C-alpha cells in the first residue's frame, strides 16, 4: 500500500511509515499534523555563548558544524546527536547536565538568588 505526499509528490510505502516515524522521532524533530514538533531537549547554548562572548560561527567551527546548526539547537528546532552534544560540552568545558536538560532550566536569577 502506498500513498503520495501532496506537498512533495513523494510516494511513501505505508509499510515503511513506522520505521520512518521512529527514525525521525529519534532525531527529536518529527512532524505532527503537518507541523514540526520542536525538541524536548533544552539547552543553555545561547546563554553560554553570550556569557563568554562567543559567536555561533566560533562554536560551529570548534565542533565541526554549520553556524545555522547552532541556531537550530539554541531555538530547540533540532536535537543534537550524542557526539555533537559532547563536543559542545567540551567546547564550553562543562558537564552535559550544565548545558542540556530534558526539563526547562530555571532562570539564572532564580538559581543564584532564589527569586520568583
Spell out the blueprint of helices and strands.
Blueprint lengths: L1 E3 L6 E3 L3 H10 L4 E2 L2 E2 L5 E2 L1 H8 L3 H8 L3 H9 L6 H11 L3 H4 E2 L6 H6 L3
Antiparallel strand pairs: 1-2, 3-4, 5-6
Helix pairs in contact: 3-4
Q: Summarize the biggest pleated sheet.
A: 2 strands, antiparallel
User: Cα distance, first to last residue?
Assistant: 55 Å
Q: Give the strand line-up of the largest sheet.
A: 1-2
CATH architecture term of the domain at 42-103: Orthogonal Bundle
Total number of helical segments?
7
What pattern of helices and strands is seen along the backbone? EEHEEEHHHHHEH
Secondary-structure content class = alpha+beta
> What is the class of the domain at 42-103 in the CATH system?
Mainly Alpha
Structural summary, described in words:
The longest helix is centred in the C-terminal third of the chain and has 11 residues, at 82-92. The strands form 3 sheets. A two-stranded antiparallel sheet has the order 1-2. It has a domain at 42-103: 434 Repressor (Amino-terminal Domain). It starts with a strand and ends with a helix. It is built from 7 helices and 6 strands, in the order ββαβββαααααβα. Strand 1 (2-4) and strand 2 form a beta hairpin. Residues 19-35 have low confidence and may be disordered. By secondary structure, the chain is α+β, with helices and mostly antiparallel strands.
